[in-house]
Amino acid sequence: MRCEEWSERLAGRVCAEPGESDVDLERHLESCARCRAELADLKVSWDELARLPEPPVPTERMRARLARAMADSGRTRPNTLSWAWVRRVAAAALIAGAGFLAGRLWNAPAGAAPPDPRPRYLLLLHERPGRAAETPEQVRRVVEEYKAWAQRLRAQGKLVGGEKLSNGGTLVSTAGDRKIAVPPAEIGGYFVIRAATREEALEIARSCPHVGRGGTVELRAIENV
Amino acid sequence: LASITTDEELVRSAARGNPDALETLFDRYHRDLYRFFRRAVDPADAAEDLVQEVFLRVWKYARAFRPDGSFRGWLYRIARNAAADHLRESSRLAPSGPAVAPEDIPAPLASVGDLSAVLAHLSAADREVLVLARFHGLSGVELAAALECSSGTARVRLHRALARLRALYLENPEGHRHAMRRVE
């Protein structure tokens, strides 16, 4: 086989997933300096590509547009199901608008914000034991999925806050400090939500993308003390 | 939708007319699609329209999705077709459509040290395969499904695109210096 033919397999080598290997190609590379040099060159370009900045994404505008387009297509297809989503987007827009207005009123110097009577709940995101290591791209995708979910809750006025936690940590007690084993990290993140009832809080916990990914969400009511 | 986890299950649910399943797919993929259109397709300002078009097509054609197929490959195939239709439509509406295929016209090369300019200088076909493999992490099988070709052809296309990118980028002294600084 000539080097030109091997060279067509080099791109596969550059972007190979861990675990994949082309044994014949590896053998050829050991003996061919020219192909090794070409591989190194390709790898530089490939790695450089990853440094390009990500264009910002207008998520909410696209979500609202699609919901409108779906509603329009619903008129031509009367057999399609309930438009819970379309209604939800419309409601979220309304709540966000009302919240903005309310925020302005509450922030006015004359008065303070009235306390929200709904109880708060803590969602603790337990990671799945033995979870496989994720690539930065996979982590980014997951984080964005969680963010989109959280943004939706926020638009509905149900999110108080939440953060992703880094791996590891320390358990502090009188017995001394103990490092949390990595991996698996025990708790990957948390959200604090407001819900009128425990059932609603459970419903929110079940809708968290973390559950879909095989993780466990621990729901705890926060006591006002 | 808590019990529904995979993309394939979601698209089946969408095929049964469940808009919540489509919304979950939107949550998972709208960013990737938007970035794909922004990076790989001309004109980049059509990206929002195209993302919407893709999800409307997913909704419309969900029943045609084969359970044994790769969802991402299928999704990006829809995306490429939507972009091609958009391009045809806009060149039909333009007073004088281009005489050569748009992928043959390289964009002007603004600055060779700037990789995004180099990427823009590649043909649309090269950019597409590079963007899908690099930024969207499509596997060989997914890439073949998206490009509607065999895995072998997809691999060769990727190799040639990467080789042309390297030629434009590294064989220019400025680009090479830039890259070497990064490596060091």
Give a quick precis of the structure.
The complex is a heterodimer of chains A (225) and B (184). Chain A is α+β, with helices and mostly antiparallel strands and 225 residues long.
Structural class of chain B: mainly alpha
Total number of strands of chain A: 6
Report the helical percentage of chain A: 40-55%
Helix-residue proportion of chain B: 55-70%
**Largest beta sheet of chain B, briefly?**
none
**In whole angstroms, how far apart are the ends of chain B?**
48 Å
Characterize the largest beta sheet of chain A: strand count, sense, and whether it forms a barrel: 4 strands, antiparallel
Q: Which value, in Å, is the CA radius of gyration of chain B?
A: 18 Å
What is the 3D shape of chain A? flat
Euclidean distance between termini CA atoms of chain A: 76 Å
Average pLDDT of chain A: 75
Overview of this protein structure:
- The complex is a heterodimer of chains A (225) and B (184).
- Chain A contains 9 helices and 6 strands.
- Chain A starts with a helix and ends with a strand.
- The relative contact order of chain A is 0.11.
- Chain B is globular and about 55 Å long.
- The longest helix of chain B has 23 residues.
- Helix content of chain B is 68%, strand content 0%.
- In chain B, 43% of the residues are buried.
- By secondary structure, chain B is mainly alpha-helical.
- At the A-B interface, α2, α4, α5, α6 and α7 of A face α2, α3, α5, α6 and α8 of B.
Provide the descriptors you would attach to this structure in a database record.
heterodimer; A: 225 residues; alpha+beta; 4-stranded antiparallel beta sheet; B: 184 residues; mainly alpha; 0% strand; globular
Draw up the topology in text.
The complex is a heterodimer of chains A (225) and B (184).
Chain A: H1 3-7, H2 10-14, H3 23-31, H4 33-49, H5 59-76, H6 84-106, E1 120-126, H7 136-155, E2 159-164, E3 170-173, E4 176-179, E5 187-194, H8 198-207, H9 209-212, E6 216-221
Helix pairs in contact in A: 5-6
Chain B: H1 7-15, H2 19-40, H3 47-61, H4 71-93, H5 115-121, H6 124-134, H7 140-147, H8 151-170, H9 173-183
Helix pairs in contact in B: 1-2, 2-3, 3-4, 4-7, 6-8, 7-8
